[in-house]
TrEMBL record:
Organism in which the protein naturally occurs: Seriola lalandi dorsalis
Similarity comment: family membership: Belongs to the small GTPase superfamily. Ras family.
InterPro entries on file: P-loop_NTPase (IPR027417), Ras-related_GTPase (IPR051065), Small_GTP-bd (IPR005225), Small_GTPase (IPR001806)
Catalytic activity: GTP + H2O = GDP + phosphate + H(+)
GO molecular function: G protein activity; GTP binding
PROSITE patterns according to UniProt: RAB (PS51419), RAS (PS51421)
PANTHER family: RAS-LIKE FAMILY MEMBER 11 (PTHR45704)
Protein name listed in UniProt: small monomeric GTPase
Length: 201
């Protein structure tokens, strides 16, 4: 199975940290302002799954970004929407993103693609401003899955996010997508930071 996942959320919530954690099992602290698509393969229930993961900074200015946003929605088989549990504005933004994704999908008549909501930075619970229950309730109300994780502290919880999404995608009807033109597991940090221009497809 080959599936496309878009990782979205506001600035500094840990989108790159989550993606890099999945790819390398490591947390390196600083990630720079990278927008990249990575390819990562792993086994689930004896089957090889290849995920193409688009780590994208979010622009709230959808009037400017509409065509890029539509491109992402057309491309995506699933979404990881990230907020920081210490940043209420990032949580509110995820809530708005879900509505925008759903209305764009309706507008484009795109396939139903599952969404996972991720509350990141769980290790900073002394600075928490968003309760777990709020995340859980948002997920319940919008038919999404919900996880709270710490990309800084834990690889397995991050793995669970992507496994959970893969399981939901298996249930959803998947249409064949145009291949990205590159594949393979990203194995080293230098490969992780090899940039891929997103306007090339
Ligand atoms: N304590 C803690 N810090 C984290 C965690 N995840 C990410 N960070 C930190 O938060 C900052 C932003 O992380 P990034 O992964 O660059 O966030 P991003 O969402 O990709 O940011 P942009 O690319 O600017 O949109 C960095 O300083 C990370 O070290 C976490 O789980 N816990």
């Amino acid at each position: 199975m080959d599936a496309n996942i878009v990782v979205m959320g506001t600035e500094s919530v840990g989108k790159s940290a989550l993606t890099v954690r999945l790819l390398t099992r490591r947390f390196i602290g600083e990630y720079g302002d990278i927008e990249s698509i990575y390819s990562h393969s792993f086994m689930v229930d004896g089957r090889e799954i290849t995920l193409n993961i688009w780590d994208s900074p979010c622009s709230e200015d959808l009037s400017v970004e509409t065509s890029l946003f539509e491109k992402k929605v057309q491309w995506a088989d699933g979404y990881v929407l990230v907020y920081s549990i210490c940043d209420r504005a990032s949580f509110n933004s995820v809530s708005r993103l879900i509505q925008t994704i759903k209305s764009t999908k309706d507008y484009l008549n795109a396939d139903k693609a599952p969404i996972v909501i991720v509350g990141n930075k769980r290790d900073l619970c002394h600075r928490r401003t968003v309760l777990s229950e709020e995340g859980r309730l948002l997920a319940l109300n919008t038919d999404c899955h919900f996880y709270e994780v710490s990309a800084a502290e834990n690889y397995h919880s991050v793995l669970m996010v992507f496994h959970g999404l893969v399981n939901r995608m298996k249930d959803a009807k998947m249409t064949m997508k145009r291949p990205l033109g590159f594949k393979g597991i990203v194995k080293s940090m230098s490969a992780v930071f090899a940039r891929r221009r997103t306007d090339s497809f």
